[in-house]
Write a structure and sequence with these properties.
Layout lengths: L1 E7 L5 E3 L3 E2 L1 H20 L4 E10 L8 E11 L3 E14 L6 E18 L10
Antiparallel strand pairs: 1-5, 2-3, 4-7, 5-6, 6-7
Pfam families: 4HBT (PF03061)
GO molecular function: hydrolase activity; lyase activity
Organism: Streptomyces cinereoruber
Length: 126
């Protein structure tokens, strides 16, 4: 099971030279997608326990359109291992406002984390 959220990255999100957005931006989107996945799976937002790994693979810039995917990797009695991927699907061409849909998404960030569902909210759904 997976969920995908898409979002425009406002230029105001850029904090570094080269119009770069900080890595925490993508992690916040992972939190939103992970919560959506938890609600879909268990009918509860769950509590995020932490990341086992995070890889920053390509820069995210103001003017990009990204998609954050949360995919269930493993399901324990109360724990949920989730794989995350942030992909850039559109990119600004220049500073005139022109942009293009990329022919292939650029993988910007990958992560794996664990969420925990309270005992009274855990389900046995697949």
């Amino acid at each position: 099971m997976k969920v995908v959220h898409q979002r425009y990255v406002a230029y105001s999100e850029a904090h570094y030279a080269g119009n770069l957005v900080d890595g925490a931006f993508g992690l916040k989107l992972f939190g939103d997608a992970g919560t959506h996945l938890a609600i879909t799976l268990d009918g509860h937002e769950s509590l995020f326990a932490g990341y086992a790994s995070v890889e920053f693979l390509a820069p995210v810039r103001g003017g990009d359109v990204v998609e954050a995917e949360a995919r269930l990797a493993a399901k324990g009695r109360r724990s949920r291992t989730v794989d995350f991927e942030l992909r850039i699907i559109c990119r600004a061409v220049d500073d005139s406002g022109r942009a293009e849909v990329l022919p292939e998404p650029i993988v910007a960030t990958r992560a794996r984390g664990t969420a925990v569902v309270p005992a009274d909210a855990a389900t046995t759904a697949p």
